[in-house]
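Deliverable D5.2: sample structural annotation.
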Amino acid sequence: MMNISSKRYLQGFGVTVVLLAMLRCAYPEVASSPASNVAVADSSVVADSMTVADSAKAVLASSTTAISKKDVASVPTLSPKPLGRPSRFFAADGTPVKNRIYSVPHFGNTFPDQNDVQLVAAARHGVKAVIDRADAERRKSELVYVGSNPFYHIDDRMRSSIPYLVPRAAILLQDIGKNFFDSLQTKQIPLHKVIVTSVLRSKADVQKLRRRNSNATENSCHLYGTTFDICYNRYHTVEDPDGPRRRQVRNDTLKWVLSEVLRDMREQKRCLVKYEVKQGCFHITVN
């Protein structure tokens, strides 16, 4: 006859076996030594075909301990975890998914940041207003060059500004170009670079510009190296010199994709954006 203490001992031992069996099935490497890695790898094929709870039941059923079938049946059966939501970039078979173009509801409402709002950010992150080009050359410790780049194109017609920005704004411009590339790829649109039409302006540049452009303000954000303009009606096509010419893409299509990129950057509090109708550009200041 088995006394009460012995029964309690066996019951406790049975529970321990259950827990250890479930732990070993879930993490087989816990109970294996370096020398048995090969055996563990072979057994993982079998373990993959059943849930952790089913594995625990199998171990319990073959155990020589005094555990009843009722104890084995009481172990809950766990359903496999779902793999999660499907990727927005790849289908189940691994092929790329073509993402839709949404644009933004209204350009003026989505990008409303006027000059007075952008000036606050320019004063916070920018340099002291540049007097002339000679002054800009002396300020190279505060400014970085933003010329030729794999992700954006500096307009060949740019005459009223100097290709310098503060580092914070230069990083923003690079990220806009990279995100624009990423969006074009996920939407399966041939690659194009955005065109930068204006960057740092000296006070002398602003004075000249105001004579022919009534939209230019005397206290321009461009004076502080925090601001740049990206045109939305022209783009620089990326061509493979050894491959066929790319098919034509409407500028409006590229504008819609660019607007999505800028809206996301603005919502992340990285920049302020004004939609310029007359100038055909997005006026952007780093935030």
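Annotation notes: The two ends are 82 Å apart (CA to CA). The chain has two domains: 4-73, 107-286.
The annotation will be released with the project's public dataset once the embargo ends.
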